[in-house]
Amino acid sequence: MSTVLAAGAAVVDFVFQLDEAPSRSEKHRARDAAIVGGGCAANAAVAVARLGGQAILAARMGDDVIGDMILSDLEKENVDCSLVKRFEGRRSSYSSVIVDPDGERSIVNFRDNEIDFGGSWLETLDLPAFDVALADTRWPDGARVAMQAAKKRGVPGVIDGEAPVREAQVALDMASHIAFSRAGLHDFVGDDDTEAALRRASEETGAWVCVTEGEDGVRWLDGGVMRHLPAFKVTAVDTLGAGDVWHGAFALSLAQGKAEQEAIRFASAASAIKCQRFGGRSGTPSACDVELFLKENS
Amino acid sequence: MSTVLAAGAAVVDFVFQLDEAPSRSEKHRARDAAIVGGGCAANAAVAVARLGGQAILAARMGDDVIGDMILSDLEKENVDCSLVKRFEGRRSSYSSVIVDPDGERSIVNFRDNEIDFGGSWLETLDLPAFDVALADTRWPDGARVAMQAAKKRGVPGVIDGEAPVREAQVALDMASHIAFSRAGLHDFVGDDDTEAALRRASEETGAWVCVTEGEDGVRWLDGGVMRHLPAFKVTAVDTLGAGDVWHGAFALSLAQGKAEQEAIRFASAASAIKCQRFGGRSGTPSACDVELFLKENS
């Protein structure tokens, strides 16, 4: 089984659906609510596991009841949490996500800045075998350790290039693949057009680079040639976690030995299916769902 | 020790403090956050326990992790939770409370409407001895059972008269004391002036009635005569749960055999102290705090 090591954020989201737009100093009754695990790395790890891979999560948490909730959910999803470190007396991250009737989301996130940002504890561990490392920019030093380990093993190291990207500069310089969001690419190289920006990012990092642009699909450089895969046409009901599903599916595809173009197609299908389902990452599809979707949409 | 039976809501609030007013479709990082137990009856029960009484809570919850959090907190506060019923496969109530820099609160609450609203399961239990029953209008049939049990025992039955009040009509008709909020009194008798409204509420219910008006203090009818206790002058930093502390302290005072006027004074002091402390009901004072405050403010 192909294994992905995912390093970064693991949180829990309290998601409320409202029938009206929320307003200041008022009390609203939610039409529905859900407690959904979140965080870039954790969502990607769940995607890897659901899509038939083995996911190992490296993350930092507090030793509180919120941390218990996060871990218990990840374990139900068959994510290997042996590289999760819990910090004594510290608090895990959680968010309030308020979704109004137009699908607009207002997110308020809490994180405990007293948890050590360093990744050296991860470096000292005897890491298990893996086929691809994936990291986000929310935990730059963890990303560094993950990319370093991938390089040492001679396997792909993928960065989810979300702003602020420069904070993870050391990791970027070691990555073999960087998948920018539109905002991440803009943050990284300034306000060039997409093609020029991708070329600059490629030159600077030496990595294979792409940019995921939601409804506008994915653009990437293929041996110096600009390529584009349009997005699958779906009716999105909830985009929460869709980007993370994309990164998990992309990393897993590389781990399975697929070429980048095929990996992009698989990841875009997985992400499109997720967007059609309410409830954050709980809407992550299985490998079978994606195969069926690709058959129906080719 | 004087015992108060409190029937009604028990929830948990996820409270986020922001440095800016929250806006739609944006992501905010909270300056601080707290997980605080809430719900009218639960807050009042905690106040009773902290103020030196024995509190028994009757409430409905799901058998989920949120329910575990609520109960574990109440047990730490020495609230007797033997009359809490947990419903299989159902979900407990929780809220997101976003406090902006001006102290304005935006609350979004979820409750599982699949939990049976009936109170007959409480009626069939062999209720322990108590000196006062307190109930809110959020669980009308539970309020009915609590008021009925108080009447049968010949002890005071106090209703926290928050809108919508008429839903708890049966309970109101059995109550010996009703403490309306301003909105609750308005909802109950329409838009009369306060004195006329209180007289109409008194005539209709036959109960002792008062209205708590926050910074404007408390007004009540004393043998047909309108009385007023101004609020204590404090700098409020967080009013979350202050009304519930008032009701718990008022009910406990009656349970201790105090007259209404003295109970109002004690409750208003307890509530004023709470307003000076951040963190919802975690700022509920002890009996000693209240005595000191009353000495300093008389």
Per-chain topology:
The structure is a homodimer of 298-residue chains.
Chain A: E1 3-7, E2 11-17, E3 27-29, E4 32-38, H1 40-50, E5 54-62, H2 65-76, E6 80-87, E7 94-99, E8 105-110, H3 120-123, E9 132-136, H4 140-153, E10 157-161, H5 169-174, E11 177-181, H6 182-189, H7 194-205, E12 208-212, E13 218-222, E14 225-229, H8 242-255, H9 260-275, H10 287-296
Parallel strand pairs in A: 1-5, 1-9, 2-7, 5-6, 9-10, 10-11, 11-12
Antiparallel strand pairs in A: 2-4, 7-8, 12-13, 13-14
Helix pairs in contact in A: 1-8, 6-7, 8-9, 9-10
Provide the descriptors you would attach to this structure in a database record:
298 residues; globular; four-stranded mixed sheet; nine-stranded mixed sheet; homodimer; 10 helices; UDP-N-acetylmuramoyl-L-alanine:D-glutamate ligase; alpha/beta
Would you write up a description of this structure?
The structure is a homodimer of 298-residue chains. By secondary structure, chain A is of the alpha/beta class. Chain A has a single domain (3-19, 31-113, 129-296), classed as 3-Layer(aba) Sandwich (UDP-N-acetylmuramoyl-L-alanine:D-glutamate ligase), CATH 3.40.1190.20. The first copy, chain A, has helices at residues 40-50, 65-76, 120-123, 140-153, 169-174, 182-189, 194-205, 242-255, 260-275, 287-296, and strands at residues 3-7, 11-17, 27-29, 32-38, 54-62, 80-87, 94-99, 105-110, 132-136, 157-161, 177-181, 208-212, 218-222, 225-229. The first copy, chain A, has a 9-stranded mixed sheet, sandwiched between helices. In chain A, helix 1 (40-50) packs across helix 8 and helix 6 (182-189) packs across helix 7. Chain A is globular. The relative contact order of chain A is 0.16. The model of chain A has no long low-confidence stretch (mean pLDDT 94). At the A-B interface, strand 3, strand 4, helix 2, strand 7 and strand 8 of A face strand 3, strand 4, helix 2, strand 7 and strand 8 of B.
